[in-house]
């Protein structure tokens, strides 16, 4: 059996600006939705609270739940002096040279990062972009070029300038589409010559809530209207991007943690097929350029009459078709189980007796990755790009901050072997793999530093205290060797 991955396979890592970058009020950056998300208590990490610009505190049930009824009156103000993880994160803003060098030493061929929209357009509505913001990412690209690392840019990773959320109700409004396209156009003009791979949105099928959509009252209708507007924003950006940068390649990113029927009872199998369609609603629409036949059924499940209840303009169907994805990018973290009568979106159905779990109860399922890759390729027939995968763990550094993370090595060895089988045995084309996250950063779902993913340890705690010193873990050396051998050493 061929053990190496195909020549040119893009090995790398992925990060998101608000979890990594910091510098939230430096360089002319405006406030973004995530700047208002405080970190939760360490005992109850999933209960994030959000302090709105007008001082109102809201408590989404969990970060995956949709925040209800955020007041529309909220006006952007300076943020109070309280620790918000995204304000400082792990300060890539001032450590980018050091961090990119560490990535280069690992042998990375690609680095996926997101651009902070409010660093480029502080309120989202300016006529001209913030030059200082563009300059910061120029410097990042300079460093990447120095080491021959390709950038993979996420245009919008789960956040938008707070002004667009407050003033327009985020992506629930069609107006926000034009602000997004203007922002994307600026990125293409400014960085287009240096960037081939783009992602229009992160985990678009998760449409998590206020932070990622800017939508205040998250009933089903608003949420699926926002999704439609995001589809159109993405398709318009792709059409424009293809015109401005003929060699560009566009994807959007989906959260594709797969789901198995809990039993072989036909009712459970059918229910699981229906539940999975919640994901295909997004993947099919963007990957094939039209809504799937079961779109009405999905919407009805959420109390919406059907596509006819959404505001869809006559030109939208053409836009969707012409703005199809070039490749399908996805995150894969775990699998879950489902049975008839279970609630949709219940990614917590983790009781699978055949699998071990991470400390956060996520199933460790390497074959699930191979299964997912085959399922997506069978369906869309476009190259894949695995742009997020990894394991969140509690690391125990010694006195020198060295972490012997054998669990990470074990996890990645299994997952990457399954990926290699999907590529070499099942012949699924896959452009590359960017591990989440090569360096420790703030967790999205818990707002904590305790949940660590990196090959590189960062001295920083849950409350924003620490020296920010970077120290390679045991897995750093291991992954370096895997990359050097292009997967042969797995
Ligand atoms: C994905 C997000 C990332 C990232 C990752 C890990 O859903 O795209 O931003 O954070 O999940 O999740 P967590 O940090 O919650 O463990």
UniProtKB/TrEMBL annotation:
UniProt xrefs under InterPro entries: GH, Glyco_hydro_1, Glyco_hydro_1_AS
A GO molecular function held by the record: beta-glucosidase activity
CC annotations in GO: cytosol
Record key words, sorted: Glycosidase, Hydrolase
Active site (catalytic residues): 388
One of the GO biological process terms: carbohydrate catabolic process
Highest taxon in the source lineage: Bacteria
Keyword Amino-acid biosynthesis tagged: no
Keyword Hydrolase found: yes
One Pfam family here: Glyco_hydro_1
Similarity annotation: Belongs to the glycosyl hydrolase 1 family.
Protein name as catalogued: 6-phospho-beta-glucosidase
Organism of this sequence: Lactobacillus kimbladii
